[in-house]
């Protein structure tokens, strides 16, 4: 987790990029583990030989694997709100998968704060635009509107 910010400081970052993760390589082992966890063993993800005969020329990551990495990246780089007891994934407003992630490519997340609202005392709902970039590619893997709920201590 990166730096700690006050609620006022966080509100001052609306419409600004607040964090960028490091690059992470998506290898075949991670793809296979995700396939095992979800039961999605479609050949395009887990069979390099068969996938070589597709337009992608090899296996690609599941879209939902790419999406799930947002949590990892956020935990590593997002600023922590002062007084936070915990943060909860509150959901998504929008997800678009724009480009496949080929096995061996690297991803990173870029987080822009869109909105901060106090739902009720001690609960702060933040909305972020997240772009999952593929290293060396112009088109991102996906774009996401992510909701995070921060619970503050009393």
Question: How would you characterize the overall build of this protein?
Answer:
- By secondary structure, this protein is an alpha+beta fold.
- It has one domain (4-152): Hotdog Thioesterase (Thiol Ester Dehydrase, Chain A, Roll), CATH 3.10.129.10.
- The chain contains 5 helices and 8 strands, in the order βαββααααβββββ.
- It has helices at 7-11, 28-38, 43-46, 48-51, 63-77, and strands spanning 4-5, 17-20, 24-25, 80-81, 84-97, 106-120, 123-134, 142-152.
- The radius of gyration is 17 Å and the shape is elongated.
Average pLDDT, to the nearest integer? 96
Oligomeric state, counting identical vs distinct chains: single chain
Low-confidence runs: none
Distance between the termini: 22 Å
What is the H-and-E element order? Answer: EHEEHHHHEEEEE
Biggest beta-sheet profile: 6 strands, antiparallel
Instruction: Please indicate the count of domains.
Output: 1
Structural class: alpha+beta
